Amino acid sequence: MPFHIILLVLFAALLHASWNALLRGGADRLWSMTIMCVAVAIASAIAALFLEPPARASWFCVVLSAVLHVGYNLFLVRTYQVGDLGQTYPVSRGSSPVLITIFASIFAGESVAASALAGIVLVSGGIISLAFKGRSLATPSLPYALGTGCFIAAYSVTDGIGVRVSGAPMAYTVWMCALWGVLMPPVYIALRDARSLLTIRPGFMTAFIGGLVSLLAYGIVIYAMSNAPMGAVSALRETSVLFAALIGYFFLGESLTVRKILACVVIATGTVIIG
């Protein structure tokens, strides 16, 4: 994998952990997520004005990924409503690289070298181990966290395939994200009401900026998947749990144990192997 791709994906991992911490720290996470999506839609629509649309062959992936992203949003919000960032984030993010590697092999015909596969397994295993308490994964949010991981794998492979036939990674990203951002407010209104969505409340700018950060982070990942294997890119992206553990410790009052530190060493080892 090219060195500049590795650096870009690690930067995206830091951005990803940051916006997840912003979402986890919000009082009303569904509202925060929807405001983030509004920001994504506005920024993507503006960018789309200056770009040619992606190739017609990629439009099925654009629509499918946007719908999958909405499902991911709903599962992620539910996960954070009943679990800590340091416990739920590793399960949802750690389960996805292996799933993506399998799905990419089935649907995109991708093959991964044995060494890279070993790195992916190390990263996933190290990430999931961060969620353990003792010898168990005793968390009521576990089904939602695993569901979130499945959505991550589904939209990642969809985007990996779509961006490769789009002819324009940036155009694919902004059109998909614009549609995703447009779909989320109607879902919020169906679950709540329009008045609460339009009310400006504390945390609005934080959520709005978080949306822009998430757009940049995922745009980098989509670009990387157009130039490198999806599973390897995903595993590198999921090193965001290292940043999430530190953010949770320093800013959200969550613990940082010896187990977590050892897991971080395993994740770093897997990252080096992939690189």
Spell out the blueprint of helices and strands.
Layout: H1 3-25, H2 29-48, H3 59-82, H4 85-94, H5 96-107, H6 114-129, H7 142-166, H8 169-191, H9 194-198, H10 204-225, H11 230-237, H12 240-251, H13 258-274
Helix pairs in contact: 1-10, 1-12, 2-8, 2-10, 3-7, 3-8, 4-6, 4-7, 4-12, 5-6, 5-7, 5-11, 6-11, 6-13, 7-8, 8-10
Tag the structure with descriptive keywords.
mainly alpha; 13 helices; 0% strand; 275 residues; globular
Helix content: over 70%
Count the helices. How many?
A: 13
Radius of gyration: 18 Å
Q: How many domains?
A: 1
- C-alpha termini separation: 6 Å
Number of β-strand runs: 0
Alpha-beta classification: mainly alpha
Outline type: globular
Average pLDDT confidence is: 83
**Largest sheet, strands/sense/barrel:** none
Taking pLDDT < 50 over at least 5 consecutive residues as the criterion, the unreliable ranges are none
Q: How much strand?
A: under 5%
Order of helices and strands: HHHHHHHHHHHHH
